Amino acid sequence: MAELHVELVAADRQVWSGEASLVVARTTSGDIGIMPGHQPLLAVLKPGPVTIRTSGESGQGSVVAAVHGGFVSYTDGKLSLLAEIAELSEEIDVERAERALERAKAEADAPAEQRADVRLRAVAASR
User: Fold this and answer.
1) Using one digit for the tens of pLDDT, what is the confidence trace for 70-91?
2) Cβ neighbours of 26 (radius 10 Å)
3) Measured on CA atoms in the order 44, 37, 40, 57, is the torsion positive or negative?
4) Which residues have a Cβ under 8 Å from the Cβ of 98 and sit 6 or more positions away?
5) What 3 state SS string does 38-52 have?
6) Distance between CA 107 and CA 21 in Å, rounded?
7) Mean model confidence pLDDT for the chain
8) pTM for this one?
9) For 69, which DSSP code?
10) Is 26 helix (H, G, I), strand (E, B) or coil?
């Protein structure tokens, strides 16, 4: 099976790196699925969950991350997701995200509400 090398990088760290058979992300043009052999691509990421269908020695699985803006680039079998902020779903404290969502709604803080919502959607997508 053909694979693509994926690098998910946040401004402050490398979040995930490995081989994948499919990556699904939300761009300003809509949701996109990237598989090996995809045409070269450069797009702006919208906040939302990114799903990476992993492959390799450990078998198939998936990695889900909450991505808060950035860029996606694909060329020559390498996919780079460069995010302002990115968190793997297993790193997200669900109770804290729920509290942050409620607080943001009460304070009418749309950006904070969006960040909390993206975190909760990433956790839900990983289950």
Assistant:
1) 999 999 999 999 999 999 999 9
2) 18
3) positive
4) 116, 120
5) CCCEEEEECCEEEEE
6) 41
7) 93
8) 0.90
9) S
10) strand
